[in-house]
Amino acid sequence: MTILNVRLKPEPPKEFPIYIGLGDTLTAMTLIKKHYNGKQIVVITDRNVAKLYGDKLKNYLEIDGFNVLFLTVNSGESAKSTLVKEKLELQMLEQKIDRHALILAFGGGVIGDLAGFVASTYMRGIKYIQLPTTLLAMIDSSVGGKTAINTKLGKNLIGSFYQPLAVIMDLTYLNSLSKKMRINGLIEAIKIFLTSDRDSFYFLRDNLDKVLKLDGDAIKLVIEKAVKLKVQVVEEDEKEQNLRMILNFGHTIGHAIEKLEKYKILHGYAVALGILVEVKIAHLMKKLNENDVNIIFDFFKKLNITTKRLRTLNKEDIALATIGDKKNKQGEISCILLKNIGKVALENGMVATQISHSVIVDSLKKIIEK
Amino acid sequence: MTILNVRLKPEPPKEFPIYIGLGDTLTAMTLIKKHYNGKQIVVITDRNVAKLYGDKLKNYLEIDGFNVLFLTVNSGESAKSTLVKEKLELQMLEQKIDRHALILAFGGGVIGDLAGFVASTYMRGIKYIQLPTTLLAMIDSSVGGKTAINTKLGKNLIGSFYQPLAVIMDLTYLNSLSKKMRINGLIEAIKIFLTSDRDSFYFLRDNLDKVLKLDGDAIKLVIEKAVKLKVQVVEEDEKEQNLRMILNFGHTIGHAIEKLEKYKILHGYAVALGILVEVKIAHLMKKLNENDVNIIFDFFKKLNITTKRLRTLNKEDIALATIGDKKNKQGEISCILLKNIGKVALENGMVATQISHSVIVDSLKKIIEK
Description:
The structure is a homodimer. Chain A is α/β, with parallel strands linked by helices. The first copy, chain A, has 14 helices and 13 strands. The first copy, chain A, has helices at about 30-35, 45-65, 80-95, 110-120, 135-140, 180-195, 200-205, 210, 215-235, 250-260, 265-285, 290-300, 315-320, 355-370; strands at about 1-5, 15-20, 40-45, 65-75, 100-105, 125-130, 145-150, 155-160, 165-170, 335, 340, 345, 350-355. In chain A, strands 2-9-6-5-3-4 form a six-stranded parallel sheet, with helices on both faces. Chain A has a two-stranded antiparallel sheet with strand order 7-8. The longest helix of chain A has 21 residues, at about 215-235. The interface between A and B is large, with 73 and 72 residues. Strand 1 (about 1-5) of chain A pairs antiparallel with strand 2 (about 15-20) of chain B.
């Protein structure tokens, strides 16, 4: 037997900047040019964003001398599909887009996930830049390089880890978001504050009205803080071996709720409900004290998010729906449990705790009867 | 404007072994166990291979205590499609295959490309091992981590760079290959010898009968030599920035021929014709002398490969069909040209030369009138 040992050259460390600011101080065009010296840009966006900002962006890019292929998909989670991905690829191929082109992911979380995934497999990978337009995408999905599409058997099950050249967060886009969409995004900030930063949680709680009104300083502070925390986590553990799993707080139950609600519920709202259930589980498992539980439940009440919504769902169904989640190994359910506000309970050095089906059902009973 | 600089931890260098031997000295089961300590294996193969070797492999894996999900696709290039990829993913999801499972790519080049691509995006990437069964897959496609599917607009246009845990080449599988399939695989060895190793080219030429009869030493030597050369190239330039492009020798024209023949022609045979045309182009462009051209054409004649086949194709069509190739940048056609047998002509330090449409047409005229 002959053995040839292949040892590939190590790749240079992946580095990229995240820019946060307002359109007039942060000019996306200058930043795009700084990071990309090619000619061809493929903008991938959805119909809502295209309607609001599409012409303007396209004009600016063309004035700056880029060839622009502007591709629009339907708004909403359904765009994260094999079908839509393939359609985008064929449109790009028909227009002879080569591997030196840049994709601009222009929209919310759905667009970032979809366009990032297209970038990662088009001719085995081309460059892309994230230009998020929603609070959810800024705080969470545009940072970290996770790309994905959904399957009929669950969310984000097919995808890749693929980092952009840059993330450009222009807070002016937030003005067009409804209060509901602002709350939807804010949940991911609350999530990371609850797991990692007690002070920021209380800051957000005490400045909630300002933040929701997009008061310049308050909203920027919350975004910056949340993004910084997420960056620290991703820098430490890009491929989600351990620490990065804390970002799944609220998501084990949250994804199950989304699935049962057939993705008609907004992601943030599903995660918020997931957080409430997982907080209750942590309390039941004697990790988290009652005082912290109450503080968290009270805070969500201010956002008009209570567990009433869960009453229409079957407890067993929720527990069962967690099983297909890709965080789980061979039937066990993996869950992030708080130790206190700002800290996660560790189990054998791991941030995720394995819990049983029955604990989920018990917690749901307690919550719903509360 | 705030700038957060993200700097991800460098990934450990990618290292993996390639094992080459006969089934009795090289026991695939022991090697799989050595590299994978999980329980769940997903075998992806095609109907031909399944019929010949499927039961045996499945039994061995199960005796060794693995849970085996055995997935079969149609034989041939048509399996490298979005549709088949999605079907495999859904079958895996239905069987609750989690991200700790291992995919075994068991078959020829099509299976390696397809199964590797499935592995690279299933739950954002799971482990896989290449177990090639054809000469083509051993010599070329199982080495280097290129995975892909085809689109109706061209071959291998969607895919990824994704390295396996190991490549296990058991030469006993070659016995079931027809002479045509042996030649089909050998072309990729001829290709790399012509670009990088004069001595091996002459060794192969002078031992062609032995090699085609799978004489133990001769065939092993050719495979080892070709794989070693490919490994050196991939180690130096995994992502095909420059050097790795030499592996595309014969492929610019070869891919165009495959496309025009609607993939009914075997890959190796298309590349062989591509090599002949590209050799002629190199001669026309005064890079390669006539003596070497004749040696190469004479050698291919021994394999019964001549340019007669090209007469049924339109010269303009071939030239046009090269334009969609992903190696090309903004309309120019990128081509690997020989300087002499065993060496590639450089252009400004790059191994690929930009050529014009008309040079291709002229070369085709010369060849066909020859």
